[in-house]
């Protein structure tokens, strides 16, 4: 009898820890979605120019690399969560400052529209990752792998935009990387691995 109570208690504690880990991972991915959406909105309304958006994408890339590193073992420790939250808070402040400074973008320019389309795809892909976390079709390790892939996409966008102009060839390179990442997201969401709990 005592043995079954101990086992049941352990299973309940493991389930609660697993649910907490899932919620924490979902929260960090949701912040990615929110920040990418803010960058896209800033490009569309002209409060961000292409160069500023490129700098912000570089920062997003660094955050996603940190997420990938922290989720490599399948969990986020309290220390990792705090470090990630600080990085995301800094990025949020940087987005706000860039949106409210005197530099303005031209949302109608071909360069801005190219970057707008690429950032919109970031939003969509981060939403797919978040949905996979919420439904249990992605493990934390898989989320880490996908965030590493998103970091590569963001870095490519950052490099393309650093001179304030995203050309057609640069966009083609970004879209190629985004297509590869989309395939990886699909594969990871539809493999046999599922979250426990």
UniProtKB/TrEMBL annotation:
Residues 149-168, 175-189 have a biased composition (Basic and acidic residues). Residues 1-21 form the signal peptide. Residues 85-197 are annotated as: Disordered. Keywords: Signal. Residues 86-100, 108-123, 132-142 have a biased composition (Polar residues). This is DUF4148 domain-containing protein. It comes from Rhodoferax lacus.
